[in-house]
Amino acid sequence: MGVAVCAKLLAQKTSLPLQEEAFIAGLLHDMGIVIIDHYFPEKFEAILETMTKERLSLIQAELKVLGFTHALVGKLVAERWNFPGLLVETIRYHNKPFQNENYCATIALIYAADGLCREAGEGTDREQTNYNLEVKVWSWLGLKLAERQNILQELKTGIKKAAEFMNLISMDPETKD
Asked: What global pTM score does this model have?
């Protein structure tokens, strides 16, 4: 949820007309993780153990355990489910923002949002942000790194509001008025 909120916020800051698309892509970008966990729980457990024992990022541990990453799994499932190209490619390249010439804006938004969420303490991935790539993405999006702290504060507020909303809609229907 954090990446979705942040991607929409960054789309607003950049004046890109992709706010809803960025939000949806943010929700779905890591769907491959959920799929691996659900269908291959023992492999997912091995990935988590490898991350902890060897102090690896999620991607490094996935490559070591599976030989491929959650991004590829997500892409393949998104294609199978006939997701629009924007979502398929964003899911596939969200960790490699300039390796796909199509949909660069959305992929860059998700990459930047993911990095901000890690900085805000959201998620469990130990992936280290590549500072040079981060600067390139922010620059490409027309954002200034000096704005980062203000955006981080807005992100925390947005995540809190989203969490409150999710708690509201997940209440037991019998207890609602």
From this structure: 0.85
